[in-house]
Amino acid sequence: MKAFGEIWESNLFQKWLMAITGLLLVGFLIGHLSGNLLVFMGPDAINEYAHGLRTMLHGTAIWIVRFGLLASFALHVTSAIKLARRNRAARPSSYNTVEHRASTLASRSMLYSGLLLLTYAIYHLAHFTWGAVHSEFYVKACPPSPECTDCIPDVYAMIVSSFQQPVISVAYVLAMIMVGLHLNHAIASASQTLGLRNRRIVPIVRTVGPLLGILVALGFSSVPLAILAGIVK
Amino acid sequence: MDLKNHIPSGPIDQKWDKHRADLKLVNPANKRKFSVIVVGTGLAGSSAAATLAELGYNVQAFTYHDSARRAHSIAAQGGINAAKNYQNDGDSVWRLFYDTVKGGDFRAREANVHRLAEVSVNIIDQCVAQGVPFAREYGGYLSNRSFGGAQVSRTFYARGQTGQQLLLGAYQALMRQVGLGKVKLHNKQEMMDLIVVDGRARGIVTRNMVTGKVESHMADAVILATGGYGNVFYLSTNAMACNVTATYRAHKRGAFFANPCYTQIHPTCIPQSGDYQSKLTLMSESLRNDGRIWVPKNKGDKRAPDQIPESERDYYLERKYPSFGNLSPRDIASRAAKEACDDGRGVGPGGLGVYLDFSDAIKRLGEKVIADRYGNLFEMYERITGENPYHVPMRIYPAVHYTMGGLWVDYNLMSNVPGLFVLGEANFSDHGANRLGASALMQGLADGYFVIPYTIGGYFAQGGFSPVSQDSPVVQATVREAEEKIQKLLSINGKRSPTSFHRELGKIMWDKCGMARNEKGLTEALKRIPELREEFWQDVVIPGSGAELNQSLELGLRVADFLEFAELMCYDALHRNESCGGHFREEYQTEDGEAKRNDEEFAYVGAWEYTGVGSKPTLHKEQLEFENVQLATRSYK
Amino acid sequence: MNLRLHIWRQSGPQDTGMLKTYDVANVSEHMSFLEMLDVLNEDLIAKGELPVAFDHDCREGICGTCGMVINGRPHGPLARTTACQLHMRTFKDGDEIYIEPWRARAFPVVRDLVVDRGSFDRIIQKGGFVSVNTGNAQDGNTLPIPKLDADRAMDAAACIGCGACVAACPNASAMLFTAAKIGHLGSVPQGQAERSTRAMNMVLQMDAEGFGACTNHYECEAACPKGISADFIAQMNKDFVSSAFGGRD
Fold it and tell me: Are residues C80 and C124 in the same domain?
């Protein structure tokens, strides 16, 4: 019997980890998106939702989710890098000419779209969670004072004021196109890695994967675009 | 020398049982002390190597391929016979035995053939257990078809890739033993010579085809499973690398070569398209079930086939053999095609082809039915020729396909050199003068899985094996000879490539010792071959060195052996003054052109002893006794 | 027709190798691709140059020996066709053709277009078989196998072990080859006893040989001359993970 360490390090297990963590991240994205879309229902809806997240289970829920996300993210990224390095090593010299027959732009650019998304994620956290960048738009719901213990950001105000800046909006929309591209291949790929592939499932997965990618990208982009267009103020 | 075939006494259906009971056994603990070399990893070699390793023998296997899975057994399309009688259509061991002896035109050994028919049923079981994906009926049971004119459905198949699937089964069994450390497999090693010590086969000399190193390997017995010699004709359906070297070098070390003139010509191959042609491709004979064979009635008729009216077509098989028609046996259909072409009525490039026309069948059954039956064959034909057989009749021509002759072996599959065993197509034993369809796979696996594991034990149990060192003078001398031969070949530095000699030899053999032979032609060939051989050793050029991967050198060494072996074939064909199976002598035919066998004088195995290059070999005869099957003339009228 | 060939020449595993250009004249459209190379080689021999080494044997598309990347595609431009079955009518006068060996760390170049595919054999040695000694077998019809299963097994078993899947995969992964054998034996009852260990051991050997991982491009499926479906890869993934967690290896 093989030791689990050996199995863990195998390409196939690493891929399986990527698929599982990837699907968890997709699940998170869908949750995140549904939260974002509350912007269209006005400031109270989204701020209440944000407050709710922070206070759920006496404030522990958000940390559980954050840990889960961080772990998934870390596993997803480390596996990706590990596999990418091994894949490079497996093909030490390249062909003079290569003609692709089945792969797509999305499938071939997974590593790059993934790395760009990693950069984006850090930027996004710095922007909305830590207030480290664009801090001029970091607004709290109550005036800052040392006594205030459950001060929460005024999410609605932050979103609107940030995305009124075209540069920020464009950056976010570009990142969302990258998310769409990544998901386009990710869903079908994960289902293959998890072994969910037969004649019944393949057509469904082939439609659902790209569709989900497009919907997520459109959904997220709709917020900055609506703000830029002045529909949401 | 007296050839002892060691056929056990007793009734034919009890001989094998009796023999197995009589064979001495090797103690399980002692088996690992006996070492066996297996050369070749086709059906016979792989199955033998795997099975002997399972039994506990110390096995070394050799192949000139990069993997044991590539041997030409893989190309067999049709299927494998077995007397299972799953179809309840009256098949039995007896009937398979009878059909094989009769199909072999009464030139096979009865006892061997009966054993083959007996173990045929075990082969299917073994292969199924290995996971070979034989075709199944909807109920999940094994499917059978009738093949090659048999009256019963006893052929098991795996799509059109039966040979491939059976070989992969044997290859996987071999890989399992390699993984377990029970077989040491040597890839990319070609046998150069047999090492005979004190009259016994004790090892081989090989050339490592990657490094060029020539080295010796020692064992207590040597098994050759190195296939047939069809490539002596240059163009054949054999794979490019198939060659006679292993068996011929063993012949030069004393093993008798039996019946080399028995070569099978397959009627439905895709014709040659030009001089550059490197090999011929066979299409399943099943095409003849629905296709009609014809040539124009008029010589040199160059019209397109659809421009030739019905009245100006000669459906010659239907005309000559009304009851069997287009389904006449392989040798008859092949010869009839040659006659038509010799008569100047052949079609296609060079006039070497006849039409196989499906237009009537398509009219009768519709294109869809024909596509269901032969779709993949039609596709293959179109890929090679660029013509669509749904619209233009196929062109076919006979090609060399299988060689029934091989090294002489006794009932134990041991040659006259003790310790040298020969399996599969490399031996001569089971098919007589003509092999039936779907019998080659059966014989290869029978020899490897079910015969050699028993009989080799009997040989080892005799004892008396003293170790032979690789440093001993006889071993060193054999290695040196091989090295010198290679050096000599490399140093000629003439003008002609090995391929050009091979092509020229092939043409001589095809013209003079091919589908139809006669005394005059054979005598000419026997004059021309030594001249060509002389020229080869004066004028061949092999670029590169011996100490690297050198495909020209590999070919050169093989062609050098073909140039000697071809002479042996012609001697055998010339001496056999009769027509039987794959050997048709024009002088010996009935008035209406049928083969005329001569049982009085030629019901024997012609086993030839080597006497030197260019010197006439000595004939030894093993008389064939037919106690169970009545000698009769084949008739397909 | 006349052609210009750019062929990879490499004298041995240690050599770096390079593309060399050759012109071949009067190529007949009826020649197979390998026959065209034969003609080139005969020319080279006549000129006293070393012929191009390439692997080939049956020349009817079943032995899996031949393999070269032709204009960026393993086995050339035709789908489901090995290099030996590719005919020159696919090309036209004046074409330039790039011919390169399979490129993968696990397939070291031996010479020119010849690579060592021993890694495939070693993968099979780890479990690509049913452990049944000769003589163990029961009657072939004792265990009915539904036709669909037998057909599926045959679909996978059609693999000829040529390595085009590895050559086509951007990661030089051997997933399709390995999955085909696991899929073949996993589809028949005879293969069930060792199903779990087979998947585990063959997959780990694939890594040990230095093949890359699958990124689900399906280039392998497109390049496979036998049209083996990447569905078998999914099945292998499932078998492997259930073996990993099932602990029955």
Answer: no
| Alpha-carbon span B503 to B515, nearest angstrom | 17
In chain C, residues 99-128 whose CB comes closer than 8 Å to chain A:
100, 103-106
Mind listing the pLDDT tens digit for each residue in B14-71?
A: 999 999 999 999 999 999 999 999 999 999 999 999 999 999 999 999 999 999 999 9
Residue with tokens 């199976």: B581
Task: Tell whether C240 and C145 lie within a shared domain.
Answer: yes
Helix (H, G, I), strand (E, B) or coil at B154: coil
Tokens 């010198």 — which residue? B484
Question: Which residues of chain C are within 8 Å of residue A14 when distances are taken between CB atoms?
Answer: 213
- Name which of A14, A86, A198 is nearest C231 (Cβ-Cβ): A198
**A95 neighbourhood in chain C, CB within 8 Å:** 69, 72, 100, 103
Three-state DSSP string of chain C: CCEEEEEEECCCCCCCCEEEEEEECCCCCCCEHHHHHHHHHHHHHHCCCCCCCCCCCCCCCCCCCCCCEECCEECCCCCCCCHHHCEHHHCCCCCEEEEECCCCCCCCEEECCEECCHHHHHHHHCCCCCCCCCCCCCCCCCCCCCHHHHHHHHHHHCCCCCCHHHHHCCCCCCHHHHHHHHHHHHCCHHHCCCHHHHHHHHHHHHHHCCCCCCCCCCHHHHHCCCCCCCHHHHHHHHHHHHHHHHCCC
Residues C17 and C58 in one domain: yes
Q: Does A133 touch chain C (CB under 8 A)?
A: no
Q: In this predicted model, what pLDDT tens digit does every residue of C80-115 receive, in sequence order?
A: 999 999 999 999 999 999 999 999 999 999 999 999
Q: How far apart are CA B393 and CA B529, in angstroms?
A: 38
Residue ranges in B27-68 assigned as alpha helix (H): 28-31, 43-55
Q: What is the pLDDT of residues C163-222, one digit of tens each?
A: 999 999 999 999 999 999 999 999 999 999 999 999 999 999 999 999 999 999 999 999
Q: pTM of the full predicted structure?
A: 0.96
Tell me if A195 and C238 make a contact (CB, 8 A cut-off). yes
Q: Is B240 on the interface with C (CB under 8 A)?
A: yes
What are the chain C neighbours of A194 within 8 Å (beta carbons)? 234, 237-238, 241
* Burial classification of residue B345, based on how many CB atoms lie within 10 Å of its CB (0-12 exposed, 13-18 middle, 19 or more buried): buried
User: Which subunits count as partners of chain B given 3+ CB pairs below 8 Å?
Assistant: C
Does an interface of 3+ CB pairs under 8 Å exist between B and A? Answer: no
- Please state, in angstroms and rounded to a whole number, the distance separating the CA atoms of residues C36 and C27: 7
CATH level 2 (architecture), domain B265-400: Alpha-Beta Complex (3.90)
- The 3-state DSSP class for residue B226 equals coil
Minimal Cα–Cα distance from B242 to chain C, Å?
8
Contact C62 B164 (CB under 8 A): yes
Interchain CB distance below 8 Å, C244 and A91: no
Indicate contact of C with B: 3+ CB pairs under 8 A. Answer: yes
Question: Does residue A144 have a pLDDT over 60?
Answer: no
The answer on pLDDT for B112 being more than 90 is yes
Q: Across the interface, do B552 and C65 touch by the CB < 8 Å criterion?
A: no
Instruction: Indicate if C122 and C233 belong to the same structural domain.
Output: yes
Cα–Cα distance measured from residue B20 to residue B23, given in angstroms and rounded to the nearest whole number: 5
The matching CATH number, chosen from 3.30.260.10, 3.40.1190.10, 1.20.58.100, 3.90.650.10, for B473-598 is 1.20.58.100
Query: What is the Cα Rg of chain B in Å?
Result: 24
Domain that holds residue C25: 3-100
- C44 has a chain B CB within 8 A of its CB: yes
Tokens of A220: 């997220």
Contact status of A157 with chain C (Cβ, < 8 Å): no
Q: Which domains does chain A have, with CATH numbers?
A: 4-91+103-228 (1.20.1300.10)
